[in-house]
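hey
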């Protein structure tokens, strides 16, 4: 009896079965392992004004893609990459203020509606055609503070109408009180801005006479006296029509970097649909996320692997093309032993 027991203990298959049984027993004993991960809470504001329709990104097979579509793809990629427990709120920007679509929701449990909301963003949701970037950004900072989140503001930075010679509004908050990221979207070269009719059909591009090239509200610029037709009372900005390139668009990176300095936010350029994860995680506030790790699937998988090894071990010599001495007849006897 003792010899038989010793022989069984030496059998590798018996040891594998014993190990599988021990792993199965542990699944009834071990509970979830407590873990603390790091996540983020972010308010994402997307610029949906007309210049975001400029197609200066390259998609699949080199097909031109608009800034708005690229920003949407980058946000969807970001949501999929964030650790579970992270929360994201979504809002739109047009005219001079952001509009909150929904408050922060968890990125894993609510992934489907969140991804669907991002995919459905459209420039037709805009309620005004103006694009007062600085005013919208400053209000977005206040909104993020109210929601207790960081801020992710995606825009090309093109003010429409252009800022007056005196500059834009002044940020009256505390720089750095809200952390986050300003993301400059668009290429560095000037590109035409698509034009649409009342039915939303593209009809061409904006020309120089279709948009305001200079903001003539407030005091005139310093060079006004040197302009043709200047009159301090009747023509303080000169007598000729303003000329410029406001009907064309590029990412206004120097302007956005200036705004990031004023607000204490970080700036990053969006190079493509997968370029948000790293800069956001570097700029956002790390937030501890209590969680747990269930070890039972790993233990059960290990037990299953051991059982497979037990039943597969007699077939290994056959699969390897090696038989015990004596050929096929001896293999049957060797197998029984």
């Amino acid at each position: 009896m003792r010899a038989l027991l010793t022989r069984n203990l030496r059998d590798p298959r018996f040891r594998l079965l014993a190990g599988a049984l021990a792993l199965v027993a542990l699944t009834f004993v071990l509970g979830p392992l407590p873990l603390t991960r790091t996540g983020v809470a972010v308010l994402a504001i997307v610029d949906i004004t007309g210049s975001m329709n400029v197609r200066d990104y390259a998609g699949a097979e080199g097909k031109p893609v608009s800034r708005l579509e690229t920003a949407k793809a980058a946000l969807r990629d970001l949501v999929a990459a964030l650790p579970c427990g992270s929360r994201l709120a979504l809002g739109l920007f047009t005219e001079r203020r952001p509009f909150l679509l929904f408050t922060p929701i968890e990125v894993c449990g609510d992934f489907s509606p969140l991804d669907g909301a991002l995919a459905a963003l459209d420039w037709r949701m805009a309620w005004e055609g103006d694009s007062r970037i600085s005013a919208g950004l400053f209000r977005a900072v206040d909104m993020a503070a109210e929601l207790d989140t960081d801020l992710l503001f995606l825009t090309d930075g093109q003010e429409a109408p252009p800022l007056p010679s005196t500059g834009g509004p002044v940020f009256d908050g505390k720089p750095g009180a809200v952390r986050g990221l300003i993301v400059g979207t668009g290429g560095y070269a000037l590109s035409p801005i698509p034009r649409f009719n009342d039915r939303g059909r593209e009809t061409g591009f904006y020309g120089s006479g279709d948009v305001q090239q200079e903001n003539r509200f407030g005091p005139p610029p310093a060079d006004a006296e040197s302009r043709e037709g200047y009159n301090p009372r009747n023509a303080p900005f000169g007598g000729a029509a303003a000329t410029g390139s406001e009907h064309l668009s590029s990412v206004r990176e120097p302007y956005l970097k200036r705004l990031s300095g004023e607000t204490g936010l970080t700036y990053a350029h969006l190079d493509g649909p997968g370029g948000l994860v790293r800069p956001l995680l570097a700029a956002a506030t790390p937030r501890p996320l209590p969680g747990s790790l269930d070890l039972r699937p790993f233990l059960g998988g290990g037990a299953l692997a051991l059982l497979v090894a037990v039943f597969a071990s007699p077939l290994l010599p056959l699969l390897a093309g090696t038989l015990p001495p004596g050929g096929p007849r001896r293999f049957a006897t060797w197998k029984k032993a």
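Residues 17 and 307 are 7 Å apart (CA to CA). The chain has a mean pLDDT of 87.
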